[in-house]
From TrEMBL, chain A:
<keyword id="KW-0813">Transport</keyword>
<keyword id="KW-0375">Hydrogen ion transport</keyword>
<keyword id="KW-1133">Transmembrane helix</keyword>
<keyword id="KW-0812">Transmembrane</keyword>
<dbReference type="InterPro" id="IPR038662">
    <property type="entry name" value="ATP_synth_F0_csu_sf"/>
</dbReference>
<keyword id="KW-0472">Membrane</keyword>
<dbReference type="GO" id="GO:0045259">
    <property type="term" value="C:proton-transporting ATP synthase complex"/>
</dbReference>
<dbReference type="GO" id="GO:0015986">
    <property type="term" value="P:proton motive force-driven ATP synthesis"/>
</dbReference>
<dbReference type="Pfam" id="PF00137">
    <property type="entry name" value="ATP-synt_C"/>
</dbReference>
<dbReference type="GO" id="GO:0033177">
    <property type="term" value="C:proton-transporting two-sector ATPase complex, proton-transporting domain"/>
</dbReference>
<keyword id="KW-0406">Ion transport</keyword>
<feature type="domain" description="V-ATPase proteolipid subunit C-like">
    <location>
        <begin position="5"/>
        <end position="60"/>
    </location>
</feature>
<feature type="transmembrane region" description="Helical">
    <location>
        <begin position="43"/>
        <end position="61"/>
    </location>
</feature>
<keyword id="KW-0138">CF(0)</keyword>
<dbReference type="GO" id="GO:0015078">
    <property type="term" value="F:proton transmembrane transporter activity"/>
</dbReference>
<comment type="function">
    <text>F(1)F(0) ATP synthase produces ATP from ADP in the presence of a proton or sodium gradient. F-type ATPases consist of two structural domains, F(1) containing the extramembraneous catalytic core and F(0) containing the membrane proton channel, linked together by a central stalk and a peripheral stalk. During catalysis, ATP synthesis in the catalytic domain of F(1) is coupled via a rotary mechanism of the central stalk subunits to proton translocation.</text>
</comment>
<keyword id="KW-0066">ATP synthesis</keyword>
Amino acid sequence: MYNLIGAGLIVIGGGIGLGQIGGKAMEGIARQPEAAGKIQTAMIIIGALLEGLAFGALILGK
Amino acid sequence: MVVVKKSINFIAVLVLALFSMFSYGDEIQHKPGNKVDTAEEINDYIAHHLKDSHDFHFYTHNESGTHYSFPLPVIVWTSNGLKTFMSSEFHHDDAGKVIVEKGDVKLVKLHSKIYELESGASTINFDEHHHATNAHKVLDFSITKSVFGMLLAGILMLLGFGALARGYKKGKMIPKGFSRVLEPLVIYVRDEIAKPNIGEKKYRKFMGFLLTVFFFIWILNLLGLTPLGFNVTGQIAVTACLAIFTVVIYMFSGSKDFWAHTLWMPGVPYILRPILAVIELVGFVVIKPFSLLIRLFANITAGHFVVMSLIALAITLKVSFGPVVSTGMSLVLSLFIMVIEILVAFLQAFIFTMLSSLFIGMAVEEHDDHH
């Protein structure tokens, strides 16, 4: 039960983080479409780092 | 003409995706004699699929209970030396009931692990937590399903890249056939992953590792989506091994500046330097490889879990929605997730290679400026 609540909290946190990254990246691409490639790569790296944290917490909580 | 060609490609991809979904479905239904219909049984089958196994199971006929599978060799180091036999001697038993006698060693298979019975014991006993009391695990070097998958990926890579290399050796600068698919990917890894992260001067030394890791992970992720039902990159041992390779490589190729910045950070007060050294060392030795291995493992496991759960919808929702609606729902949803999984297969290989090269880049970097 408690680990399910924990999993929910992790997903909320990860979702907020991914939303921030994605939203800001979209904004950046809209402002500067010619930098889209670079922004995308950076976005994926940061997303992956965040994902590592979230998955790490999920696995530890299991 | 172009339209026809494109739609043929599209239909081919669709048929392939559907075919693999049916095969996953078979895996859910593979209990002999009776069909799976409770949530616990479905969970059991999903857990069984996510684990490694000693035989290659395709399909079980529901009425007769016949298994369509082929056995893989079991190679174990027991208390009485090396023993080899085919996994078919266990007769698909996974609960420790069938005992295989090799010389004076008795072996049983329990939850996809091979146990050796203590001397004198004739059946396996359990305590209240379902742990075996009179048997212990043996050193297992078997060619399991995952090992088979890795060998298959290795052979595929040898064939594909061997052909590409032979083409270059003959002096043909434009590759032919399947090599045309591989060349852009190799150049992509070089120009988009290695060069920007490691730097123009030093990237060449690490290309071998990065390319191998990229294609190894990608091919295994894609094999996991085929009807063969591999789950190799979803085994934590495999991803841990790949992460350890990365750590060893960046630790041993670290420049003088890297070690100076890790162990005795210039430009910070002297009191803080030992604390920073501990933080940096833990970061490089533990946290970075841990996040690498957890990311790949968790993504692939979660992907397989979601696909199988969505296929299981056809069974779990049959009571409340009827067979047509539940099957349709599970078909549409699992097709959608399958397509996403094809993207994830590439993305995870890309991320692993990208972060590996980022860490290697941090380690080999030389600073000209002095703080």
